[in-house]
């Protein structure tokens, strides 16, 4: 998709509607509420795509996966340029994206209805699974490629058309997804995209949600914005799939491989400047191994580079959270509230008393989006579970233990959408469900679970000629 120029010569990512980019006025930003973005465009794309066979939908997704691999260098560069991420993170995004696409494609033909029994002679019943209709996808910038593509692909795989509201921080990356899908043969009007400034986002998002043609919304982002999206969707009676922020705990038990746990915790806290909702935000360690583990953790953190935040505001917020902890007298095992590089906070571990109330210290239950973690020392498994579950969030957690039974029992007690044992917190599997509980949203993505989010049941009965006719009263 070629970029256009505004009146100042700056590159502009065009709005993509009904299979082609809209020409822009070089002297003004076009309002999204223009007639080109009417429900008619959405209906055009929906009517054909919802009737496309499972094979057709699968084949388009597979071709798109091939193109993501072919254009990986272009995709890596776009992510690095827009979000200041390191090449490794951008590459992981491409690899995961391809994996998600291939898995979703393999599941498209799994969508099945039922023929239930019915309590009436000479009558038959059918339950069909149908696409919910046009979906508004609002993805984030921090895993710009993989999260947007997964959301789009699950909806497309189910037979829904999509409107992508690209992040203002990664419009080029998101536009490349649209370009690749159309290169793969997706019909015009099935996938449309637009972006807006942060200042106009609320107004335009409500306009999109209110559009009668939009039947469902998927939002991936912060809990604060998620509350607004959820309230707006409720206003217009639209269902929402939401994956929101987290405050992921890593629980280190006394039978853990402490060296491995330290390395995984350090990496989980610092990857992509901690700007991942799956980041290791809290480390909870049993007292009997706390001293030994802390030493190993410091050594592991010394080897990590926190990288850069997407912009100064993110870095300054992360620094401010650390500064408050320091002003409150909390010990820093490593790091401090300073920038290591421009827009990059020093990797830090802050010791916090498990009894510290949330309203006293922001780091207790506020997502930092910085390369840091708070460390808590507890005296029992029960206390570790209590502390982990005290968060308002429930996206992901990790447990470090060599005792499988103990770890699985603890995992069942944790109030999180996914729990990983002896693994880095920044982990997902293309074949397993992903989503949060509590303040981390609702609904599940990936594979069959993601497809089911975008279909709905329709109950049809057939009553034969010999079926009973109700007697008149």
Automatic annotation (TrEMBL):
GO terms for molecular function: succinate-semialdehyde dehydrogenase (NAD+) activity. This is Aldehyde dehydrogenase domain-containing protein. SUPFAM superfamilies: ALDH-like (SSF53720). Pfam families: Aldedh (PF00171). GO terms for biological process: gamma-aminobutyric acid catabolic process. InterPro entries: Ald_DH/histidinol_DH, Ald_DH_C, Ald_DH_N, Aldehyde_DH_dom, Aldehyde_DH_Superfamily. Residues 47-459 form the Aldehyde dehydrogenase domain. It comes from the Eukaryota. Keywords: Oxidoreductase.
């Amino acid at each position: 998709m070629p970029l256009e120029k505004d009146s100042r010569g700056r590159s502009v990512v065009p709005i993509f509607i009904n299979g082609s980019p809209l020409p822009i006025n070089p002297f003004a930003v076009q309002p999204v509420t223009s007639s080109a973005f009417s429900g008619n465009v959405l209906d055009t794309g929906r009517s054909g795509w919802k009737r496309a066979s499972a094979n057709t939908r699968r084949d388009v997704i597979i071709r798109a996966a091939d193109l993501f691999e072919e254009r990986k260098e272009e995709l890596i560069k776009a992510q690095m340029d827009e979000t200041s991420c390191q090449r490794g993170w951008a590459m992981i995004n491409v690899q995961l994206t391809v994996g998600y696409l291939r898995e979703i494609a393999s599941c498209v033909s799994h969508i099945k209805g039922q023929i239930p029994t019915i309590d009436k002679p000479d009558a038959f019943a059918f339950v069909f699974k149908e696409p919910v209709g046009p979906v508004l996808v609002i993805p984030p910038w921090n895993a710009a490629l993989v999260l947007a593509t997964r959301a789009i692909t699950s909806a497309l795989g189910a037979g829904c058309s999509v409107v992508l509201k690209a992040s203002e921080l990664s419009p080029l990356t998101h536009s490349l997804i649209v370009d690749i899908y159309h290169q793969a043969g997706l019909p015009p009007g099935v996938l449309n995209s637009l972006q807006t400034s942060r200042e106009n986002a609320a107004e335009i998002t409500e306009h999109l949600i209110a559009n009668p043609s939009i039947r469902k919304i998927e939002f991936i982002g912060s809990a604060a914005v998620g509350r607004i999206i959820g309230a707006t969707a409720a206003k217009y009676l639209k269902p929402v799939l939401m994956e929101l922020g987290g405050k992921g705990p890593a629980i280190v038990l006394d039978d853990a491989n402490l060296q491995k746990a330290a390395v995984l915790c350090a990496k989980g806290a610092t990857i992509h400047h901690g700007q991942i909702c799956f980041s290791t935000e809290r480390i909870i360690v049993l007292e009997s191994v706390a001293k030994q583990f802390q030493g190993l953790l410091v050594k592991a953190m010394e080897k990590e580079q926190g990288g850069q935040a997407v912009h100064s505001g993110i870095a300054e917020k992360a620094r401010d959270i650390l500064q408050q902890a320091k002003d409150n007298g909390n010990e820093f095992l490593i790091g401090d509230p300073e920038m290591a590089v421009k827009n990059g906070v020093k990797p830090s571990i802050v010791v916090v008393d498990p009894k510290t109330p949330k309203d006293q210290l922001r780091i207790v239950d506020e997502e930092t989006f910085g390369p840091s973690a708070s460390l808590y020392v507890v005296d029992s498994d029960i206390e570790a579970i209590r502390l982990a579950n005290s968060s308002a969030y429930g996206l992901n957690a990790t447990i470090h233990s060599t005792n499988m039974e103990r770890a699985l029992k603890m995992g069942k007690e944790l109030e999180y959408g996914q729990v990983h044992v002896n693994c880095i917190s920044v982990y997902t599997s293309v074949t397993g469900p992903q989503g949060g509980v509590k303040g981390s949203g609702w609904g599940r993505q990936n594979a069959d679970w993601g497809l089911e989010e975008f279909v709905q049941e329709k109950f049809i009965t057939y009553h034969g000629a010999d079926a009973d006719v109700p007697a008149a009263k």
